[in-house]
Amino acid sequence: MKNIRNISITVALVVFNSSFAQIAIGKQVIEGRSTVLDFDNGSGNTNGLILPAISGFPTGSLVNGTFIFDVTDNKVKVYENDRWKSLSDAGNSSAVIANNSPETGKGVIMGESASNAEGVLVLESQNKSMILPKIATPHLSVKNPYPGMICYDTTSKTLAVFDGSVWNYWK
């Protein structure tokens, strides 16, 4: 009887923790209670998030808030208000390494148990968000940025996206 009670408590904790899951990458502590994904932002960090590099627009269910690096016109884009918006000028995709491996499934979903959105990484939450990797002056500190890299510039306090040629900044 004692084992059944311990198993029940363990199962309850796993269910509770998975429904409120928060994930930290490269660090032990998450900033805030409303974060579904958080990155190591220690001093000297030069690691950003690399967006999927695709040719043309993704197929399947498009969802507002989708980010890509479009190698067709070499621009970082976001799907906003049911249309694509460029976040960069035309850059250069010559450094992009093609992924020709077959992909299966709908990708990884964080924050909820399911999602209608299709993507490599789907952050689906009603009350949590992602904290971008934070980098001070990425145009100076990131020595070899990759096309489609995105981060938060702590110096200018802007969203920074790399289009393969230059950094583009958004307030």
Structural write-up:
There is one protein chain. The strands form four sheets. Strands 3, 11, 12, 13 and 14 form a five-stranded mixed beta sheet that branches. It is built from two helices and 14 strands, in the order αβββββββββββαβββ. It starts with a helix and ends with a strand. The protein is an alpha/beta fold and 171 residues long. The protein has a domain at 22-53 and 98-170.
Topology:
Layout: H1 2-19, E1 23-25, E2 35-39, E3 49-50, E4 53-54, E5 67-70, E6 75-80, E7 83-86, E8 108-110, E9 121-123, E10 129-131, E11 134-135, H2 138-141, E12 149-153, E13 158-162, E14 167-170
Parallel strand pairs: 1-2, 2-10, 4-5, 8-9, 11-12
Antiparallel strand pairs: 3-12, 5-6, 6-7, 12-13, 13-14
Distance between the termini: 59 Å
Helix % is 10-25%
Q: Extract low-pLDDT stretches.
A: 1-19
Residues in β-strands, percent = 25-35%
Overall geometry:
globular
**How many helical elements?**
2
- The SSE order reads HEEEEEEEEEEEHEEE
C-alpha-based Rg, rounded? 18 Å
Number of strands: 14
Largest sheet: 5 strands, mixed
- What oligomeric arrangement do these chains adopt? single chain
Q: What is the residue-mean pLDDT, rounded to a whole number?
A: 80
Question: Helices and strands: which structural class?
Answer: alpha/beta
